[in-house]
Specification:
The chain is of the alpha/beta class and 290 residues long. The chain has a single domain, classed as NAD(P)-binding Rossmann-like Domain (Rossmann fold, 3-Layer(aba) Sandwich). 29% of the residues lie in helices and 19% in strands. The protein has eight helices and 14 strands. α2 runs parallel beside α3 and α6 packs across α8. It holds the Pfam family Epimerase. This is Nucleoside-diphosphate-sugar epimerase. InterPro entries: Epimerase_deHydtase, NAD(P)-bd_dom_sf.
């Protein structure tokens, strides 16, 4: 589905909040200054940065400064599973993103939630699977979703993107980048953990598709699982990065599979076969990763 060639909303912008984190930096490198479905990106940072397309803004401390007219807001900012950042900020950041979207005239808000809201599930989690987060990070993302989906009338519509592991940006990728030895749980079948992953290039193209649907007036869901269609073995990613690892017996509480169903996303975005390949995910991070 093509983007509108022209519309009364041409010249609008996409505000990306959290543009200097691992995922935000990788997306900036992938897009390379290009427009995103006709929208010019505005990159938010809390630091004073010069250069076209940047806005200095501390979302939790001040109102949005003057920015060009917005079409959409993408919130990537917030704490990470590794413990960086304050998890209590998740809900206030969601409210700040919504207020910024309203102030800038945006028509849609995309919030980076997480697969962690599902907690332990035996089957592939669907968007209507009950949330049972187990970690503080999962609880913080659930609180963010609640803050975003229970707002007064008049706010722009929201889609909470329950993103799986972004290959390279998550804990395994950070361990690889640090050079530390990696140990994987080995389960009864002799294999290791399998997770829902997505490469940063694929994530960028998914976001482009969602912006395209927004601009074409397609109704978007309030929550959406975001991952490649086929789950990925962590061992395959390590092989693709050229890294070895040691095995350890999986403890009783360890989960071999933590995966999501992405049929709803597949109705909105056309994946390529290689999008589920560990080699492509690893290559994307080597090229664009922070």
């Amino acid at each position: 589905m093509p983007c509108p060639v022209s519309s009364p909303y041409s010249g609008r912008h996409l505000l990306v909040v959290g543009a200097t984190g691992r995922v935000g930096t990788a997306l900036r490198r992938y897009w390379g200054g290009r427009e995103i479905c006709g929208l010019r990106p505005v990159w938010q940072t809390r630091q004073a940065l010069s250069g076209r397309g940047w806005v200095r803004w501390s979302p939790l401390d001040e109102a949005l400064p003057d920015v060009p007219p917005l079409w959409a807001v993408l919130l990537l900012a917030g704490a990470t599973p590794s413990g960086k950042g304050n998890m209590k900020d998740a809900a206030p950041l969601a409210r700040a993103a919504l207020e910024a979207a309203q102030a800038g005239g945006a028509r849609h808000v995309f919030l980076a939630s997480s697969q962690a809201v599902y907690g332990a599930t035996d089957a592939a989690a669907r968007e209507d699977t009950p949330r049972t987060p187990l970690s503080g990070y999962g609880h913080s993302k659930a609180a963010m979703e609640d803050a975003a989906l229970n707002v007064p009338a008049g706010m722009p519509p929201v889609t909470c993107l329950r993103i799986g592991n972004v290959a390279g940006a998550e804990l395994l990728g950070q361990a690889v980048a640090s050079g530390r030895p990696v140990r994987l749980d080995r389960f009864a079948d002799g294999a290791g953990p399998v997770r829902s992953y997505i490469g940063v290039g694929t994530l960028a193209r998914v976001l482009e598709s969602l912006v395209r649907h927004s601009r074409n007036g397609t109704p978007l869901p309030q929550v959406l699982n975001v991952a490649a269609p086929t789950p990925t073995a962590m061992s395959e990613l390590l092989r693709s990065w050229g890294r070895g690892w040691d095995w350890r017996p999986a403890p009783p509480e360890a989960r071999q599979r933590a995966v999501m169903n992405v049929e709803l996303l597949e109705s909105l975005h056309r994946f390529r076969p290689e999008d589920s390949h560990a080699t492509q995910m690893a290559r994307d991070w080597e090229r664009f990763g922070a």
